[in-house]
Amino acid sequence: MDLAVIGAGHVGLVTSACFAQMGHRVIGVDKEHKVTQLREVDLGLYEPGLEEMVRRQQKEGRLIFTSSIGEAVKASQVIFITVGTPSNPDGSADVSSVEEVAQLIARHLEEYRLIVEKSTVPVRTGEWLKRTLRLYNTRGVEFDVASVPEFLREGSAIKDFLHPDRVVLGVESPRAERLLRELFGPLGAPLVVTDIRSAELIKHASNCFLAMKISYINTIASIAEKVGADVDLIARGVGLDHRIGQEFLQAGIGYGGSCFPKDVAAFIRITEELGYDFRLLKEVEEINRGQRLRLVRKVKEALWVLRNKEVAVLGLAFKPNTDDIRDSPSIGVVQLLVAEGARVRATDPVAIKNARQVLGESVRFCQDPYEAAEGAHALVIVTDWDEYKDLDLARLKAVMAIPVIVDGRNVLEPQVVRAAGFEYYGVGR
Ligand SMILES: NC(=O)c1ccc[n+]([C@@H]2O[C@H](COP(=O)([O-])OP(=O)(O)OC[C@H]3O[C@@H](n4cnc5c(N)ncnc54)[C@H](O)[C@@H]3O)[C@@H](O)[C@H]2O)c1
Asked: How far apart are CA 369 and CA 340, in angstroms?
C-alpha cells in the first residue's frame, strides 16, 4: 500500500520504517529542517536498531522523506498523523500540530483518503479532525477518519510496533476498517475494532492505568520503609497474581518521559471538561511528583548537609535504551540537588547531549560512572541502565570521598553493596 506518515519523531519514524519493512511504500513527512537532518545527518533520536532500519528502507526505495504534505497526500491511500501533542501549561494536550496538519491534508485532497490519528489525543479529537477536513476540503472530496493509538515503548519501539499485544482500530466505515485490517492484520496481534471515541479513550485509559500501578507500588514502598519490609519481595508476591501482573510494579523514583506525565495530566483535564473530578489520577500524579523529592531527601539524610557536596548522578534519560530526557525524573532530581547547593557530576550512556541543553553548565558531565564517582560523597542511581546493575564496587569505593550509594531504581543488591563497605539506601527496602 502507499502510505504517508506525518511527523517523523519517535512514533513517526518507527511507524514509517516498520511499514516499509513490511513491504509498503512510505513517505515520511516533517518540517523542512527536520527532513534535512534526517536525510543528511541522523534521526535526531536514539532508538535501538532504528537508524539501520531507516537507512536500509531508504536504500531499498520503500521509504522517502519530504517536507511536502501535498506530495504525501497525493501519493498515499492512508495518511497517519504522528505529530507531537505536548502539554499546555494547564496540563491539557496541545493539539495545534494535529489541527495544522489536518488543514494541510484537507487542502490537498483530490481523491478518497483514510486519515488515521496515531498521536495520543483527547477523546473527540476524531470529530474535530473530521470537521476540519470537511471545512478546508473545499472540493468536497470523500475521506474517512480513524484512530489507531500507538502503544510502543521507547527503547523497544521496533519490537513493540511489529509484535504488539493488540492493535486498536477505531473506525466508522467498513472501508476504513478493511484498509486498516489489511495493514495491521499481518502483525498477527488481536485486532480490537471500536468506534473512534472508544479507541481514543483506550489510549489514555491504558497509559493512566500503568502510571497508577507505578504510583501504587511507590506508595507501598513508602509503607514498607516505615516497617522495615522489602517492596521488591512484596511486588513479586503481589505481581505473580495473574490478575495483577508483575510489570510496572518496580518501586523507584517514579514515571517520566514524553508520555505518562503528559497523558495523565491531559486525562485529568479531559475528564474535568466532561464534568468529572478524577481524584484517583490526581493522587497518582501527586505521588509521582513526591518520589523525586523523597529521593533527594534520602541523599540529604545520608550526607546531613548537601551544600558543596559532590554528588554523582548515574542516568539522565527517563529510562534505559533511549536518549529521551523529556520529563525525565533524573533531570528533576539533578535540579533539586543543584538547588540544595550540591555539586552534581552526571553521566549517561547516550543522553548527555540532550541533558546538556537543559542543564547547561549547572552540572559537570562525565564519561562513565567511575569518572562521575571521583571525589563524590554520594552516588545516586536514577536510570536503570544495564551497565549500572553491574558496577565495579571496589573501583567506585576507591575513588569516592565517602562510600554512600542511593539507589533510586533498586538495581543493586543491598547485601552485596553493604558487604563491599558502602552505606546503601534503596526505595522501600
Ligand atoms: N514517544 C512515545 O513513546 C510514544 C508512544 C506512544 C504514543 N506517542 C504519541 O505519539 C505522538 C508523537 O510522539 P513522538 O514521541 O513521536 O513526538 P516527537 O516530538 O518525537 O515527534 C513529533 C514530530 O512531529 C513533527 N511535526 C510537528 N508538527 C508538524 C507539522 N505541522 N508537519 C510535519 N511534522 C510536524 C515534529 O517536527 C516532530 O519531528 C504524541 O502524541 C505522543 O503522545 C508517543
From this structure: 22
Same fold, 2-194 and 260-425: yes
Which residues surround ligand 1 with Cβ inside 6 Å?
A: 6-12, 29-31, 34, 82-85, 97, 100-101, 119-120, 150, 152, 154, 258-259
Q: Which residue's CA is the nearest one to ligand 1's atom 33?
A: 30
pLDDT digits (tens, 9 = 90+) for 323-345: 999 999 999 999 999 999 999 99
Query: Could you read off the pLDDT of 306-323 as tens digits, one per residue?
Result: 999 999 999 999 999 999
Q: Where do the domains of the chain lie? A: 2-194, 260-425
Residue 10 Cα to ligand 1 midpoint, Å, equals 6
pTM of the predicted model as reported, rounded to 2 decimal places: 0.94
CATH class of domain segment(s) 260-425: alpha beta
Question: What is the CA(85)–ligand 1 centre distance, in A?
Answer: 7
| Residue 11 Cα: closest atom of ligand 1 | 16
Q: Could you list the active site residues?
A: 259
Q: Dig out the grid coordinates for 54 from the structure.
A: 531507516
Closest CA to 402 of 317, 306, 310, 301: 310
From 395, 399, 410, 406, select the one nearest 376 (Cα to Cα).
Answer: 399
Range 2-194 has CATH code 3.40.50.720: yes
